Model the fold of this input.
Amino acid sequence: MVGCPEELARAFPDHLHEGKVNLKDLLPSELEAFVRLLGQSPYRARQLIRWLYVRRVGAFADMTDLSRAFRELLEAVAVLPSLHLASPQESLQDTTKFLFTLPDGNPIESVRMRYLEHLGPGRLAVCLSSQVGCAMGCEFCASGKLGLVRNLQAWEMVDQVLAIQRRVDARGERVANVVFMGIGEPLHNFRNLLRAIRILNHGDGLGIGMRHIAISTSGVVPAIRRLAEKRLPLKLAISLHATRDELRDRLMPVNRRWNLAELLASCREYQAATGRRMTFEYVMLDGVNDSLEEADRLVELLGGLRSLVNLIPWNPVDHPSFRRSSKIRVRAFQERVQQGGLRCTVRREKGSDIDAACGQLRLREIRRHVGAAPRAENTPAFSAGG
Ligand code: SAH
Ligand code: SF4
Done:
């Protein structure tokens, strides 16, 4: 029989949820293939996309311009899972943090930011998590201490946007920017990340422009290269944090696999392929990486790249030997980098700066949940993922 559940399961083996096809995990082209398998015209796929991403309904029963027979067929073979908003959201000035529970009970966080001058009125930015935990083990980061529990599926990334968008619909606000700077290493979940980006970007759906999507990475070099080959105008931010391999090896184990020279070479490839300015994030650790000598080396290292250096005040996590740099040291470092001819900003900590609430989401809930969880997917070998 056309469109029987077994045939559909064979057609979309990686996108099943509770034995049925998860339509929220499908690319628009796959939705077309799906409706064809059900013996329907491709136009039905456009209708489904509008219901899912423009009108943002959560059930087939609400898709009122589809025939009752088609809706019943959909109920039988497909599902529309969604994230569960787990706790009251926490707000801080213009940023709001959301804690979601995934269908398997794992928690993730996202942050909504509003009133960013460069976005315009009614435009919001959302900072998304890409994994439950993170395998990269950076010394200064709370997410690193959790280890990786699992990758998020594409729909679990997209649904963070949908859930937040739904909450601001009534105010006429729109999520216009997405940054993958929450928990996880997005380039360690490459395939699902790109799928999520394509779903977020599709013109019949949410329509978030590639230029308005940013990925922050600790430096998974083969994945940066793969991304460059795709020639998508995505914004790429590199978490640099050190200018010498010896120090970066210590702060970020990923550097032992792909060192600074390899990382910077992949950034040059990325810039050549996409034409986009590169952002380099640099977390300021007192007496560790914040000397003027480091600032000079940073200028040298980034020579020839069109770049922006973003200095990040370290958000203290339990660590015996790190302290955040003083404002005076941060300012001196910034001036030195600027004197070297680079653009250099300091991330504002609270309120309206786009990155303020990102990167260091609070992990209390997550710790509680995954404290005793297996870490089967933890991969110290730092594969490029997916
Ligand atoms: N895994 C990716 C994206 C998430 S982390 C990455 O590392 O780039 C987002 C940013 O927050 C990174 O630049 C990261 O280095 C930074 N970060 C991590 N822990 C931090 C802390 N305690 N204080 C300030 N920034 C931190
Ligand atoms: Fe993972 Fe990024 Fe934290 Fe490093 S800084 S452990 S890559 S989330």
Q: What stands out?
A: The longest strand covers residues 107-114. The chain has a mean pLDDT of 88.
